[in-house]
Protein backbone atom coordinates (compact mmCIF):
# COMPACT_ATOMS: atom_id res chain seq x y z
CA UNK A 1 0.00 0.00 0.00
CA UNK A 2 1.46 3.33 -1.02
CA UNK A 3 1.47 6.15 1.52
CA UNK A 4 1.65 9.72 0.36
CA UNK A 5 3.89 11.87 2.49
CA UNK A 6 3.02 15.47 3.28
CA UNK A 7 5.66 17.80 1.81
CA UNK A 8 8.03 19.16 4.42
CA UNK A 9 7.13 22.75 3.61
CA UNK A 10 3.48 22.02 4.43
CA UNK A 11 4.14 20.55 7.88
CA UNK A 12 4.12 23.93 9.73
CA UNK A 13 0.80 24.77 8.05
CA UNK A 14 -0.67 21.43 9.09
CA UNK A 15 0.49 22.01 12.67
CA UNK A 16 -1.11 25.45 12.75
CA UNK A 17 -4.35 24.04 11.40
CA UNK A 18 -4.46 21.48 14.19
CA UNK A 19 -3.58 24.11 16.77
CA UNK A 20 -6.28 26.58 15.72
CA UNK A 21 -8.77 23.76 15.27
CA UNK A 22 -8.14 22.70 18.88
CA UNK A 23 -8.42 26.29 20.09
CA UNK A 24 -11.70 26.65 18.20
CA UNK A 25 -13.14 23.60 19.91
CA UNK A 26 -12.03 24.98 23.29
CA UNK A 27 -13.53 28.32 22.42
CA UNK A 28 -16.82 26.65 21.53
CA UNK A 29 -17.33 25.50 25.07
CA UNK A 30 -15.32 22.34 25.81
CA UNK A 31 -14.97 23.40 29.44
CA UNK A 32 -15.42 21.16 32.45
CA UNK A 33 -16.50 22.73 35.70
CA UNK A 34 -14.68 21.42 38.75
CA UNK A 35 -16.44 21.57 42.09
CA UNK A 36 -14.15 22.49 44.97
CA UNK A 37 -14.47 20.16 47.95
CA UNK A 38 -16.04 21.51 51.11
CA UNK A 39 -13.43 22.67 53.61
CA UNK A 40 -13.92 22.06 57.32
CA UNK A 41 -12.01 24.77 59.25
CA UNK A 42 -9.16 23.47 61.40
CA UNK A 43 -6.79 25.02 63.92
CA UNK A 44 -3.70 26.52 62.29
CA UNK A 45 -1.13 26.86 65.09
CA UNK A 46 2.36 28.34 64.99
CA UNK A 47 4.92 28.42 67.79
CA UNK A 48 8.59 28.92 66.87
CA UNK A 49 11.00 29.52 69.73
CA UNK A 50 14.40 28.76 71.22
CA UNK A 51 15.08 27.43 74.75
CA UNK A 52 17.10 30.49 75.81
CA UNK A 53 14.30 32.85 74.80
CA UNK A 54 12.36 34.14 77.82
CA UNK A 55 9.16 34.90 75.88
CA UNK A 56 6.91 32.47 74.00
CA UNK A 57 4.66 33.77 71.23
CA UNK A 58 1.98 31.40 69.91
CA UNK A 59 -0.53 32.11 67.17
CA UNK A 60 -3.78 30.30 66.40
CA UNK A 61 -5.98 30.94 63.39
CA UNK A 62 -8.78 29.14 61.60
CA UNK A 63 -7.95 27.52 58.29
CA UNK A 64 -10.09 28.67 55.35
CA UNK A 65 -11.14 27.14 52.05
CA UNK A 66 -10.45 28.77 48.69
CA UNK A 67 -14.08 29.88 48.39
CA UNK A 68 -14.29 31.26 51.93
CA UNK A 69 -14.75 35.01 51.49
CA UNK A 70 -14.01 35.81 55.15
CA UNK A 71 -10.60 34.10 55.07
CA UNK A 72 -8.57 32.91 58.03
CA UNK A 73 -9.45 34.43 61.41
CA UNK A 74 -7.30 35.03 64.51
CA UNK A 75 -8.55 32.97 67.45
CA UNK A 76 -8.06 35.19 70.49
CA UNK A 77 -9.63 32.67 72.89
CA UNK A 78 -7.24 29.84 72.03
CA UNK A 79 -5.45 28.16 74.95
CA UNK A 80 -1.94 26.68 74.69
CA UNK A 81 -0.25 24.07 76.87
CA UNK A 82 3.43 23.21 76.45
CA UNK A 83 4.48 20.07 78.35
CA UNK A 84 7.97 18.63 78.82
CA UNK A 85 8.58 14.88 78.88
CA UNK A 86 9.74 15.31 82.48
CA UNK A 87 6.40 16.77 83.58
CA UNK A 88 7.01 20.54 83.61
CA UNK A 89 4.40 22.57 81.72
CA UNK A 90 3.31 26.08 80.73
CA UNK A 91 -0.26 27.14 80.00
CA UNK A 92 -1.30 30.49 78.52
CA UNK A 93 -3.70 32.07 76.06
CA UNK A 94 -7.17 33.57 75.98
CA UNK A 95 -7.99 37.25 75.87
CA UNK A 96 -5.69 38.07 78.83
CA UNK A 97 -2.53 36.93 76.99
CA UNK A 98 -3.54 38.23 73.56
CA UNK A 99 -1.35 41.05 72.24
CA UNK A 100 -2.86 42.58 69.14
CA UNK A 101 -0.66 42.22 66.06
CA UNK A 102 1.65 39.70 67.73
CA UNK A 103 -0.27 36.75 69.19
CA UNK A 104 -0.60 35.05 72.57
CA UNK A 105 2.43 36.00 74.64
CA UNK A 106 3.92 34.18 77.63
CA UNK A 107 6.88 35.99 79.28
CA UNK A 108 9.49 34.44 81.56
CA UNK A 109 9.57 30.92 80.07
CA UNK A 110 12.62 28.68 79.83
CA UNK A 111 12.53 25.43 77.82
CA UNK A 112 14.72 22.59 79.08
CA UNK A 113 16.40 20.15 76.70
CA UNK A 114 14.36 17.14 75.66
CA UNK A 115 10.96 16.47 74.12
CA UNK A 116 8.13 19.03 74.31
CA UNK A 117 4.46 18.60 73.38
CA UNK A 118 2.31 21.54 72.31
CA UNK A 119 -1.46 21.40 72.65
CA UNK A 120 -3.84 24.08 71.38
CA UNK A 121 -7.51 24.16 72.38
CA UNK A 122 -10.39 26.30 71.15
CA UNK A 123 -14.02 25.45 71.83
CA UNK A 124 -15.09 25.52 68.18
CA UNK A 125 -12.29 23.30 66.86
CA UNK A 126 -10.71 19.91 67.32
CA UNK A 127 -7.62 20.14 69.56
CA UNK A 128 -4.31 20.36 67.66
CA UNK A 129 -1.07 18.86 68.98
CA UNK A 130 2.58 18.49 67.94
CA UNK A 131 5.89 17.40 69.48
CA UNK A 132 9.40 18.78 69.17
CA UNK A 133 12.84 17.71 70.34
CA UNK A 134 15.07 20.62 71.35
CA UNK A 135 18.09 20.68 68.98
CA UNK A 136 21.58 20.59 70.56
CA UNK A 137 22.87 23.96 71.70
CA UNK A 138 25.09 25.35 68.94
CA UNK A 139 28.17 27.09 70.38
CA UNK A 140 31.94 27.45 70.03
CA UNK A 141 32.39 25.15 73.04
CA UNK A 142 30.61 22.01 74.21
CA UNK A 143 29.38 18.91 72.40
CA UNK A 144 27.78 20.66 69.42
CA UNK A 145 30.36 23.21 68.41
CA UNK A 146 31.24 25.27 65.38
CA UNK A 147 34.67 26.56 64.29
CA UNK A 148 35.19 29.93 62.65
CA UNK A 149 38.01 31.97 61.13
CA UNK A 150 37.48 35.58 60.06
CA UNK A 151 39.70 37.91 58.03
CA UNK A 152 39.02 41.63 57.61
CA UNK A 153 39.79 42.39 53.96
CA UNK A 154 39.04 46.10 53.77
CA UNK A 155 37.90 49.16 55.74
CA UNK A 156 36.80 52.26 53.82
CA UNK A 157 35.74 55.59 55.32
CA UNK A 158 34.11 58.40 53.34
CA UNK A 159 33.18 61.82 54.66
CA UNK A 160 30.26 63.90 53.39
CA UNK A 161 28.11 66.87 54.45
CA UNK A 162 24.45 66.66 55.39
CA UNK A 163 23.51 70.31 55.72
CA UNK A 164 25.68 71.75 58.49
CA UNK A 165 26.57 68.28 59.83
CA UNK A 166 29.59 66.26 58.79
CA UNK A 167 28.74 62.59 58.39
CA UNK A 168 30.72 59.47 57.66
CA UNK A 169 30.11 56.34 55.62
CA UNK A 170 31.99 53.25 56.84
CA UNK A 171 32.25 50.06 54.79
CA UNK A 172 33.91 46.83 55.95
CA UNK A 173 34.41 43.55 54.13
CA UNK A 174 35.31 40.21 55.71
CA UNK A 175 35.98 36.66 54.54
CA UNK A 176 34.48 34.12 56.91
CA UNK A 177 35.17 30.37 57.00
CA UNK A 178 32.78 28.28 59.06
CA UNK A 179 32.76 24.59 59.99
CA UNK A 180 29.55 23.21 61.49
CA UNK A 181 28.78 20.04 63.47
CA UNK A 182 27.74 17.14 61.25
CA UNK A 183 26.46 14.13 63.17
CA UNK A 184 26.73 10.71 61.55
CA UNK A 185 23.33 9.40 62.68
CA UNK A 186 21.26 12.62 62.44
CA UNK A 187 20.43 15.24 59.82
CA UNK A 188 21.70 18.68 60.82
CA UNK A 189 20.12 21.96 59.75
CA UNK A 190 21.35 25.51 60.33
CA UNK A 191 20.66 29.14 59.47
CA UNK A 192 23.33 31.83 59.24
CA UNK A 193 21.93 35.35 59.12
CA UNK A 194 23.06 38.90 59.62
CA UNK A 195 21.44 40.84 62.43
CA UNK A 196 19.98 43.96 60.82
CA UNK A 197 19.37 47.14 62.76
CA UNK A 198 15.61 46.88 62.21
CA UNK A 199 15.09 43.12 62.52
CA UNK A 200 12.29 43.82 64.99
CA UNK A 201 10.35 45.72 62.30
CA UNK A 202 8.36 43.64 59.85
CA UNK A 203 8.24 46.39 57.24
CA UNK A 204 10.48 49.25 56.21
CA UNK A 205 8.61 52.37 55.14
CA UNK A 206 9.85 54.77 52.47
CA UNK A 207 11.38 57.16 54.99
CA UNK A 208 13.43 54.34 56.51
CA UNK A 209 14.50 52.65 53.28
CA UNK A 210 17.75 54.61 52.75
CA UNK A 211 18.65 54.15 56.42
CA UNK A 212 17.97 50.42 56.16
CA UNK A 213 20.22 49.86 53.16
CA UNK A 214 23.06 52.04 54.46
CA UNK A 215 23.16 50.74 58.06
CA UNK A 216 23.18 46.99 57.81
CA UNK A 217 25.25 43.85 57.41
CA UNK A 218 24.89 41.53 54.44
CA UNK A 219 26.23 38.02 53.97
CA UNK A 220 26.64 35.85 50.86
CA UNK A 221 28.32 32.49 50.10
CA UNK A 222 31.66 32.61 48.34
CA UNK A 223 30.47 29.78 46.04
CA UNK A 224 27.34 31.05 44.31
CA UNK A 225 25.71 27.64 43.65
CA UNK A 226 26.79 25.76 46.76
CA UNK A 227 24.28 22.89 47.04
CA UNK A 228 24.59 22.84 50.82
CA UNK A 229 22.83 26.16 51.28
CA UNK A 230 19.94 28.25 50.00
CA UNK A 231 18.72 31.69 50.93
CA UNK A 232 15.39 31.64 52.77
CA UNK A 233 13.39 34.85 52.74
CA UNK A 234 11.13 33.90 55.65
CA UNK A 235 14.11 33.12 57.90
CA UNK A 236 16.07 36.05 56.41
CA UNK A 237 19.24 34.01 56.20
CA UNK A 238 21.15 31.15 54.55
CA UNK A 239 19.74 27.72 55.34
CA UNK A 240 22.50 25.11 55.52
CA UNK A 241 22.11 21.32 55.70
CA UNK A 242 24.41 18.32 55.52
CA UNK A 243 24.18 16.51 52.20
CA UNK A 244 26.26 13.45 53.02
CA UNK A 245 27.41 11.38 56.00
CA UNK A 246 31.02 12.60 56.05
CA UNK A 247 31.91 16.11 57.19
CA UNK A 248 29.98 17.89 54.44
CA UNK A 249 29.77 21.06 56.52
CA UNK A 250 33.48 21.80 56.82
CA UNK A 251 35.04 25.02 55.47
CA UNK A 252 31.92 26.89 54.38
CA UNK A 253 33.14 30.24 53.06
CA UNK A 254 31.16 33.49 53.10
CA UNK A 255 31.68 37.14 52.29
CA UNK A 256 30.32 39.65 54.80
CA UNK A 257 29.79 43.35 54.11
CA UNK A 258 28.89 45.96 56.71
CA UNK A 259 27.66 49.47 55.87
CA UNK A 260 27.16 52.18 58.49
CA UNK A 261 26.52 55.92 58.41
CA UNK A 262 26.39 58.62 61.08
CA UNK A 263 28.06 61.69 62.49
CA UNK A 264 30.03 59.86 65.23
CA UNK A 265 32.98 58.25 63.48
CA UNK A 266 34.36 56.67 66.66
CA UNK A 267 31.05 54.95 67.38
CA UNK A 268 30.84 53.70 63.78
CA UNK A 269 34.31 52.19 63.98
CA UNK A 270 33.66 50.26 67.18
CA UNK A 271 30.18 48.96 66.19
CA UNK A 272 30.68 45.26 65.40
CA UNK A 273 29.03 43.31 62.62
CA UNK A 274 26.76 40.72 64.23
CA UNK A 275 25.71 37.37 62.79
CA UNK A 276 23.34 34.80 64.28
CA UNK A 277 24.02 31.09 63.84
CA UNK A 278 21.06 28.81 64.59
CA UNK A 279 20.59 25.03 64.73
CA UNK A 280 17.08 24.06 63.61
CA UNK A 281 14.93 21.03 64.25
CA UNK A 282 14.25 19.05 61.03
CA UNK A 283 10.57 20.00 61.20
CA UNK A 284 11.29 23.71 61.42
CA UNK A 285 13.75 23.46 58.55
CA UNK A 286 11.16 21.74 56.35
CA UNK A 287 8.56 24.35 57.28
CA UNK A 288 10.87 27.18 56.19
CA UNK A 289 11.85 25.28 53.02
CA UNK A 290 8.31 24.68 51.77
CA UNK A 291 7.17 28.22 52.53
CA UNK A 292 10.10 29.55 50.51
CA UNK A 293 9.15 27.30 47.57
CA UNK A 294 5.57 28.53 47.74
CA UNK A 295 6.69 32.17 47.87
CA UNK A 296 9.34 31.73 45.15
CA UNK A 297 8.28 28.83 42.89
CA UNK A 298 10.92 27.56 40.45
CA UNK A 299 8.46 26.83 37.65
CA UNK A 300 7.02 23.56 36.44
CA UNK A 301 4.14 22.12 34.48
CA UNK A 302 0.88 24.05 34.24
CA UNK A 303 -0.90 21.05 35.73
CA UNK A 304 1.54 20.38 38.57
CA UNK A 305 -0.11 19.69 41.91
CA UNK A 306 0.03 22.74 44.22
CA UNK A 307 2.74 22.72 46.86
CA UNK A 308 1.49 22.67 50.43
CA UNK A 309 3.31 24.15 53.39
CA UNK A 310 4.79 21.50 55.66
CA UNK A 311 3.03 21.11 59.00
CA UNK A 312 3.77 18.92 62.01
CA UNK A 313 0.52 19.93 63.75
CA UNK A 314 -2.14 17.20 64.00
CA UNK A 315 -4.61 19.56 62.27
CA UNK A 316 -2.37 19.75 59.20
CA UNK A 317 -1.86 23.50 59.44
CA UNK A 318 0.96 25.45 61.13
CA UNK A 319 4.23 24.47 62.76
CA UNK A 320 5.68 23.86 66.20
CA UNK A 321 9.41 24.43 65.74
CA UNK A 322 12.40 24.81 68.08
CA UNK A 323 15.95 26.02 67.50
CA UNK A 324 19.08 26.99 69.41
CA UNK A 325 21.34 29.87 68.42
CA UNK A 326 24.43 31.89 69.27
CA UNK A 327 25.81 35.31 68.33
CA UNK A 328 28.93 35.85 66.19
CA UNK A 329 30.67 39.23 66.34
CA UNK A 330 33.20 39.99 63.61
CA UNK A 331 36.42 41.89 64.49
CA UNK A 332 36.57 45.61 63.71
CA UNK A 333 40.24 45.57 62.68
N-end to C-end Cα span: 87 Å
Q: What summary fits the major beta sheet?
A: 9 strands, mixed
Number of domains: 2
Q: How many beta strands in the DSSP annotation?
A: 17
Enumerate the strands of the largest sheet in spatial order, edge to edge or round the barrel. Answer: 5-6-2-1-17-16-11-14-13
Radius of gyration: 26 Å
How much beta, percentage-wise?
35-45%
Catalogue the unreliable spans.
1-11, 13-20, 198-210
> Helix count?
4
What does it look like?
By secondary structure, this protein is mostly beta strands. It has helices at 11-27, 206-214, 265-270, 282-295; strands at 43-49, 55-62, 79-84, 89-93, 98-99, 103-107, 115-121, 128-133, 147-162, 165-179, 189-194, 216-221, 229-232, 237-241, 252-262, 273-280, 318-330. The chain is globular and about 60 Å long.
